[in-house]
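pasting for the record
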Amino acid sequence: GGSQDPEGKEGLAHYLEHVVFTAVPGKTEAEFKGEVTSRGGTRNGSTNTVRTRYWLEVPASEWGFALNWMDQLLFDKTFDEENIVRQRDPILLEGKAAMKPKGPMDYLEDLVSMKGVGPPGFSERELGIPYKVRPVLGTWESLHRIKPEDLSAFYERYYGPQNMLLTVVGD
């Protein structure tokens, strides 16, 4: 989830969520998606502060396909720069107004409003653990700092069976 994003690269976990759907060797994004929809299924993903989720819903008779599809989705990824740059625009659109370069007035507004200044929260006050809220979607600036090697390193660190939970439900 977004709490694992490195400082200055906020939005990395969410960015990777988008890239994972489009980095399937030998298949275009449309082909990979079409494999699900042609079987009457749906798929999606989401990232919050704590976790990134991928889900696939297909008829019960397609359970074998579903496991294979999730394997292709989550494992053995390679990240090419062209695809990474292409995925940035949908993320910027998803964030709308927050996803524009900061101008001088934005910095002045942050200063005047004392944004980020206030009493410590519970985790810091009671447990001594500072908690910094980071934008899960990232910012215009942070998304433009993310490089293929950042996505690859994040993927290698967090996208392993030891960090995953697979849930299968059927009739």
